[in-house]
Every structure is written in C-alpha cells, then in structure tokens.
Amino acid sequence: MSERSVQLVGGSTYIVSLPKDWAQRHKIGARSKVLVVETPSGSLVISPVLKKPRKIEIDVKDDPELAFKLLTAAYLNGYDHIVITSEEKLSEQTRLAVRKCVRRLMGLEVVRENSTSIEVELAAEPKVVSIENGLKRMSSLVITTLQLGLSPKPSLSVDTLNEMDEDADRLNLMYSRRLRQALVEPAELAKLGLDTAHAFDTLTVFKFLSGASITPLPR
Question: Where does the SpoVT-AbrB domain start and stop, copy by copy (predicted)?
C-alpha cells in the first residue's frame, strides 16, 4: 500500500496515478479501461474491466463420487471452464455423475467430450438477484419443504418436494459461488453492496439453510 497525491487537471478532473507494477501485471496501458467501484465504506476499488475465463483441469480417476465433488468445488471457486479427465476411459457412471452435477450448477453446460474427458463451460453467468431476495427465496423453499415433507399427510407429491429441495440446493450453490468470488475480488464485493464481514456471514447463512433442507425422499 502506498500514498499517492491527487492532481487537479482542467479545473474539474481529479487524477491519481496507478502503480506501474500493477498496471503492467494486468496489461493496463494508454486508453485501457478499468472498473472503479465505491464500496459501502467509501473506499474506491479499481480493477481491470476484462477478465479471462478461469480454466482448470481435474483428474477424477474415473470415480463418479470424486467427479461430482471436484466439479462442484471448481464451480464454487469461480472456474468458468472445467475439464474433467481420467487416464482411463470415463465410465458411464462417471459421465452420469458429471451430468447430474452440471444440472445443479446454474449456468454450466457440457460442451465437449471424448473417451477420457468431459469439458464443461459456464455458458452465461447466472443472473443473481439481490442477496436479500435470494435469502428470502431460499428460506421459503427450505421451510416449505420441511413443513410439508414432515407432515403425516403431505399435500404435495414426493417428486414436487424433491424438486423444491433441488431448487434450494441450486440457489445455495449459485449464491455461494458469487459470494466466494466477492470475498477475493473487492470489485465484486462492492457490486453486491457488502463488506467482507457481511459477505462471510451471508455465505454462512446460505450454507446453514442448505443443510437444514430435507434429504431427498424416495420416489
């Protein structure tokens, strides 16, 4: 961290120089654009406008359970392009596990596959409504599934209850991805209108609500 002097140019424009090392590292040059966001505390966060999609390759050793867990982890950690590989041919069970996982991760889709790999990409970043509305929706789904699922005579079918539970799971994963990104990218945090402590607490609440939902019922 360093202090920098503010200069007034033309009587109305305030200018602060950017650290040279930072500009070179992010390939910022003349006429480059940067994102300037004001945080709730009043600080300004400057970040590059364009970010390359994050890519990762994961070896799942043709293990369906491992594939499911690692794909979910890569999504939560903000990766946009995920390549699932195995030295051996991927079995049908592993392929089914990957596709099942993709269905619960909003925005992801399978784009390519061969005998030993499956490539998954984020087709579009899911539109995240306000954190407050997300929590309300998540709470509503969890409370409803618990009330109806534990009732001696549920008014909804098992399939409907399970679908509601899956919706809650997808919401949790989508918001968790966004909040985790915000905790490491100040500009994202500012966009959400949160500070670090609030973002961490909100992430904890989503995790708690997800854990409180019912276990899928047998169909």
Answer: 8-54
CA atoms within 13 A on the CB side of 76: 16
Q: Report the C-alpha gap between 183 and 181 in whole angstroms.
A: 5
Q: Where are the alpha helices (DSSP H) in the chain?
A: 20-25, 64-76, 92-104, 131-149, 158-184, 186-191, 196-212
Tell me the whole-structure pTM to 2 decimals. Answer: 0.74
Cα–Cα distance for residue pair 198/4, rounded to 1 Å: 29
Tell me the pLDDT tens digit for each residue of 138-152: 888 888 877 776 777
Tokens of 74: 């890569």
Query: Which tokens sit at 137?
Result: 């929706």
Structural contact between residues 180 and 77, judged by C-beta atoms closer than 8 angstroms: yes
pLDDT at 218 over 60: no
Closest to 187 measured CA to CA, from 54, 50, 80, 73? 50
Distance CA 211, CA 146 (A): 12
Return the closest-CA partner of residue 120 out of 94, 81, 93: 81
Does an H or E element contain 109, and which?
strand 108-113
